[in-house]
Task: structure prediction
Amino acid sequence: MSSETDFLDWVRTQQYFLDYVRVAVGDDLAVLKWPAQDLLLVGVDQVLDGVHFDSRVHSPRLIGRKVMNRNFSDCAAMGCLPAAALTSVALPRGAGIDYAKELYLGLRDVADRWVCGIIGGDTASWDQKLALSVTVLGRSEGVEPITRSGAKVGDGIYVTGPLGGSIVGRHMTFEPRVKWGRELAESRTVNSMIDVSDGLSRDLPRICAASGVGAVIDAARIPLHPDAVELSKRDGKSPLMHALHDGEDHELLFTSSADWSARWPRIGTAISDPGVWIVESGSRRRLEARGWDHSL
Result:
């Protein structure tokens, strides 16, 4: 029977050299040499079987990719670059070393694209479903990170891609917008940003609350993903409802004083009045936040 030691011995063979990593997997802590002039950004995200994926349907490699992509989407939202990651996995008892290796290789599939070393973590088994989390370390490399709190009255509100219907399958295969997030941060014209993980109707109010502004958006300008149209045919909800509330699109939602409309759709404007409003068919109403919210 394979043990945790066998798995960790295998993981050590997967490591590669990074000039800022002094000690990676194999000791109690990883050791990094961080440039004094650089900012360190840190975040953590987790996925749970039955909530974010279904292990009866989704392969361990796909699951590994998803959790790393979620973290990299957070990097994109602040305009930083992924530098290193640590992983923690609670495997269902009896899952086996081959399953654990496939999870790791899924993480590596994403991390390697950005030369982001997986420098440590923890593995355990228990009598419950799979739980997997990743802590990501991001580097600013001379570019000021974009937060949610900088939106200004008069800013245009933009989104980098179509929304809605991700549960059709895109919630497992989305592409984190790291390159675009970096480009937006480097432009120095973007005042606030967030990735659309919990739905437009829930994530836009987070920018507004952090920035002390309101927002009005135009329903006709919200880009609808073909998945939203397809899902609408199945459940009878309009494609717009899916675009507003579904979540896990992982596009970037940002506000800017510059005009980005030649590149991405401007869906609204930041206003001084509190609240988030939507204009549809000439009628303005308050937008209810109905996206994903974790119950506690």
About this structure: DSSP finds eight helices and 13 strands in the chain. The first helix runs from residue 4 to 12. The radius of gyration is 20 Å. The mean pLDDT is 94.
